[in-house]
Design a protein that fits this description.
Blueprint: E1 7-10, E2 18-19, E3 22-23, E4 26-33, E5 39-46, E6 51-60, E7 63-64
Antiparallel strand pairs: 1-4, 2-3, 4-5, 5-6, 6-7
């Protein structure tokens, strides 16, 4: 079950997480969960100056669906 503050490793669709042509998983922190558990938002630190990007992920039975 996903909870606020959890660290999860996923394959974001919007971030360039490719290494040698293969998708590279990134670890982010859960910063929001839809009240009815439909999706959650993970925040990723990117770049060298600590920039942050967020992406939403569908939840199925409380877990991230990929």
């Amino acid at each position: 079950m996903v909870k606020l503050g959890d660290r999860r490793t996923v394959h974001p669709a919007t971030l360039d997480g490719h290494e040698k042509g293969k998708p590279r998983p990134l670890t982010g922190t859960v910063v929001y969960i839809h009240p009815e558990g439909r999706y959650c938002v993970l925040e990723f630190e990117v770049g060298t100056r600590g920039e942050r990007i967020r992406e939403s992920f569908q939840l199925i039975e409380g877990e991230i669906a990929e």
